[in-house]
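Subject: Sanity check before I submit

Could someone independently write out the structure tokens for this chain? I want to compare against mine line by line before I put it in a report. The sequence has 344 residues.
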Amino acid sequence: MRAAVLRAGALVVDEQPEPPEPGPAQVTIDVLANGICGTDLHMVADLDGWWEATERAGDAMKLFDRGRDVVIGHEFAGRVRALGAEVTGLAAGDLVYCMPLAVAPDGRLHCLGFSNDYPGGLGRRATVDASMVVPLPDGLSPEHATFLDPMGVGEYAVAHRARIPEGEPALVVGTGPVGLGVIAALRRAGASTIVAVEPSALRREAASQVGADVTVDPNERGWVEVWAELGFTGPAYVFDTSGAPGMVPRLVEEVPMRSVITTVASGTRDEPLRPSIAVKKDLTLHFAMGGSTEIYARMADELVAGRPDVSDLVTTIGLESVADAFAALRNPTEHIKVAVLPQA
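---
Independent answer below. Compare away.
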């Protein structure tokens, strides 16, 4: 099958073996849309740094052989093609979103997009555990469903990690897809004022569309100045989704006393942070990378109801344009979310 492949650190499009046949509790999917994620960008740009961080974190299900091909992509929706003998509640032809997990016959857990043996969503077909599949509600297209991952990550960061009280102001640094998911979650949580910091004019506009009250271009003004002008003096609920090197240490320096910093970004390199500053300021630091089929199902209902409306936030491309899209997303002036359509 045709697929986008990470090969010796480079991204190429080539023929690849078909995914494994579905086990008794698995399904095989014809992938209709796969979203390009910030994690993909980090991994392709700095494979060794990404791999080292993954190994040090003990994230064994994402440790692949860098000398072999890997079909990347872990945010994908598609149509059920084949079902294992024990699968219930699904039928061939159903449209679904997949959390990218599959247990091999030897018992090893594979995370698709980071596996040599189970191809990810930038291939035309994928096999996943049926328990990881979320049926798409009527009216939610596969390409718009690629926003489910940033929506789910944002919901987890806001509601399950930071747990921002209703009526509090919040700051979001970076308004790519995950930042937009955080803003949408903050709206659901009842944040009083949402300030979004983003250098891209396109993405600042998207932040306002999704629910940010104030947007700040950091090349023109600092958020601390804007925060003060808005009359906020107490602790801040801050969400870093930028992935910018040095951002967490910088925020530790900038935030008010007793602030809560939640980072949902995925930088690959070590960064210096002086703990005594965070201690003296009595800060809380969260690091969030979560989601569940229950959260994704709720986010699917939100998306189909237009909360938020992402219809003009998704650019669709074919497999042959993947490398160009990766290059464009490193300087995000043209796209918000790119969905690859492997069947096109």
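---
OP: Matches mine. For the report I'm noting this point. Residues 2-147+310-341 form a domain with the Quinone Oxidoreductase; Chain A, domain 1 fold (CATH 3.90.180.10).
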